[in-house]
Amino acid sequence: MFGFGVLKGLGVTFRHFVGTYVDDIGYWFRGGRYYNEKSLLRRQGPRAKGVFTVQYPEEKLPVPENFRYLPFLIYDTTANDDKCTSCGICAKVCPPQCIWIVRTTDPVTKRPVPQPAEFYIDTTICMQCGFCAEFCPFDAIKMDHEYEIAAFERFQTMVYDKEKLTKPDTYHAAIHPTDWAREQKEIAEKAAKEAEKKRQAEEKAKAAAVAKEAAAQQPPAG
Amino acid sequence: MANPTTAPIAELTGSLAALKERFGDAVRPAEFEGALVDPAHLVEVAKHIRDDLGYDYLSSATAVDYIKSGEIEMVYHAYSIKKGGPALVFKARTPRDNAVLPSLVSVWPGADFQEREAYDLFGVKFDGHPNLKRILMWEGFQGHPMRRDWHEAYYEQDQKPFDSRWPGGHHTRAEDRVKWADNVEYPAGFDPSSFVEEANAAVYERLKQIEVVEGQSVSVPSGNGSGSLKTDELVVNLGPQHPSTHGVFRMVASLEGETIRALEPVMGYLHRNHEKIGERNTYIQNIPYTDRLDYISSMSNNLGYVLAVEKLMNLKPTERTEHLRVIMVELTRIANHFWAIGFLLNDLGAFFTPALYAIEERELILDLFEAAAGSRMMCNYMRFGGVARDVPPGWMEKCRELVFERLPRKIDELDGFLSGSELIRARCMGVGYLSPEDAIRYSAAGPVLRASGVPYDVRRAEPYSIYDRFEFDVAVRTNGDVYDRYLIRIDEMRQSVRILQQALKQIPEGEIQAGKKQYSQRVPAGQTYSRVENPKGELGFYVVSDGSANPYRYHIRAPSFINLTALGLMCTGYKVADTVVILGSIDIVLGETDR
């Protein structure tokens, strides 16, 4: 029948429209469709029905742990020091070359000191690829979850210096719990290994001392 | 250095040996792979390759600038639609300072845009090309940017990493560093106020030349069919700023009444010379840049590129990685096809309701990408010999729920809503016809090729990754019109769900990285052409390595770009409103078309 397609199409949208209200009944028992974290997850999950909309900025989708936005530098609160050693790997791997690092040199010996004197990221160039965080051998640079960085001016505010980039490791632990646990495990393992090495060395030294003593006490053969 | 004197010379085997026997001294072995053909015999050899050897599909034609030996090499990759399997590679050389080669447009019309690109970016002139104009750069541009001795404005060095970043990296902006870049050159007597008109005049002139050639399937009525009304020829510009063109893309149509007599695509508005950037980058730095090609399906672009480099490195990824890659790529295909169908409906005039319904599922797929890769669209997920990271806990369950329960239902729902709709049938059936012969001749790829009744899918014809292990059908439709190009996307989504279900069942636990992950990867010298079946068609990467950390040549065979070669042919004889739908059915992304 001619015109049936039009009616059918209207029917589809109408069903969708009514379905959203029917679906809303279910949300009454969950504390409402909007402005409710649990409902938000359901609304955006594989069982979602009806309207998909997120009421941004009042509501925000939770970002997964792997989410990456601009990089930040980690300040080690236990050691009270920057984790960065200014090795320059992040600056070399960066695809748009938006990282600038000035390496510290000891004024007396003229040898490099493992600490950055200056560290810049031009966020107008950064492409959020996450290579710097992925290839950093010291876990000193990580990708942030903060994505609302709009500014009125791009020359002063959008070039981040070391001060603006540095965040404490407690923040990193809060947004990247899995990554943080892995790092802590690696640190603990390394420490255990070193302790074991030390213990073995001590034992060896002890054994050597004992042997030496024994050799000294024994009358020379012959 | 990919220097012709030191590189190993390939042996001529199989079909190439037959070619050598037939043409004698005109065919010589080339270094690394393929045969070097004497330019004087190029057309003759190409005809023989197409007709007698059966390599009837020209996938890629591109140039490489070997500055050390002072030559430019055109490299052609021809495939056999019937037999499948690897390519027949043939090359031709010409001196850099006077680069002229015979055009192969008479043998493969699909070489049209690719030769224009080589002319534009490398300055190779093609004898016998019907429309040798710049295609990506603007008319009046000085120089040929892909030549090795052309240095891009604003860049302090030809290769990354830049020395100014470390160890004494004080931040400066490019504009301050290079004061209005003195390496931008203009031709003598260049007048910025006139070049637009000159370029337009060239396009309009070309339109007049296009004759309705024999073999074109639709006849154009001359004047008004009834003869009662006198009509003039009218030139209409659709775009570059036009919602139907999916970006900044322009179609110049010459009309008789409301019927398209000839149509010429004009592109390059989004050109950023991706390939030059790629040659400046190190190998690994190119991975996030491939995301920005076809930004609807970044995962598949990643895969195409890492496969090419892995081929050069001779690296085999682990089992878990292979499965993860297939899962990601097939999810991408589904997301892309939902998008394509939704926006095809938009082009038909169903303003945004079907598009929004369709991209709900894409949204859920992007959530999965975000959880695994960290970004919804610019995934940057694949690495050489691995993937960036394993999927987080709970990801597989979510993916299974989506693939086994929601997606099959939603695909059926979409099919039920749309396929039978009389509006869609009326607007799409019999519109934009492309015959199977033309589809092959014009190097059309992907859904466009298969909707014309050519069952050619790279996943089957030359399986990559682990596609040889999965059970799936190559979707094919036979009418070659817009409606079939719509239906084939539904078919392909169903096949993708099948592949996903198998991959999700089979995926093993284990390591995700083969070999050591390095921030600066040296790649052994060699040449490779690696192609994958992207949602939009065959995506190929031609990579030439000279053994250093930066690629010597990095070329992309972009399906969106080459599929447009046949656009004029598809539109001829239909109405103006149909061109919008026909363009929508090719499903182009300008990030990839213009590169």
Would you write up a description of this structure?
- The complex is a heterodimer of chains A (222) and B (595).
- With 222 residues, chain A is α+β, with helices and mostly antiparallel strands.
- Chain A is built from 7 helices and 7 strands, in the order ααββαββαββαβαα.
- In chain A, α6 crosses α7 (177-217).
- The longest helix of chain A is centred in the last third of the chain and has 41 residues, at 177-217.
- Mean pLDDT of chain B is 86; it is low at 213-225.
- Chain B is 38% helix and 15% strand.
- In chain B, the strands form 6 sheets. In chain B, strands 1-2-5-4-3 form a 5-stranded mixed β-sheet, covered by helices on one side. Chain B has a 3-stranded antiparallel β-sheet with strand order 8-11-12.
- Among the domains of chain B are: 15-127, Beta Polymerase, domain 2 (2-Layer Sandwich), CATH 3.30.460; 282-517, Cytochrome-c3 Hydrogenase, chain B.
- Chain B has helices spanning 15-23, 42-51, 111-122, 174-177, 195-209, 274-280, 286-291, 298-313, 319-348, 353-373, 395-418, 422-428, 436-441, 447-451, 458-461, 482-506, 559-563, 567-571, 576-586, 590-593; strands spanning 27-29, 35-37, 57-66, 71-79, 88-95, 100-102, 125-127, 233-238, 241-242, 247-248, 250-256, 259-266, 382-383, 386-387, 526-534, 537-545, 553-557.
- The chains are: A alpha+beta (222), B alpha+beta (595).
- Chains A and B meet through α1, α3, β3, β4 and α4 of A and α7, α10, α11 and α12 of B.
Helix content of chain B: 25-40%
Report the β-strand fraction of chain B as a percent range. 15-25%
Give the topology string of chain A: H per helix, E per strand: HHEEHEEHEEHEHH
Per the CATH scheme, the topology name of the largest domain in chain A is Alpha-Beta Plaits
Mean pLDDT of chain B: 86
**Helix-strand makeup class of chain A:** alpha+beta
Strand runs of chain A, count: 7
The major pleated sheet of chain A works out as:
4 strands, mixed
Spatial extent as radius of gyration of chain A = 30 Å
Distance between the termini of chain A: 121 Å
Largest interface: A-B, 50 and 52 residues
Distance between the amino and carboxyl termini of chain B: 26 Å
Oligomer: heterodimer
CATH superfamily of the domain at 282-517 in chain B: Cytochrome-c3 Hydrogenase, chain B
Strand order of the largest sheet of chain B: 1-2-5-4-3
Runs of chain A in which pLDDT lies below 50 for 5 or more consecutive residues are none
CATH top level of the largest domain in chain A?
A: Alpha Beta
Average per-residue pLDDT of chain A, rounded, comes to 86
Number of strands of chain B: 17
Parts with pLDDT < 50 across at least 5 consecutive residues of chain B: 213-225
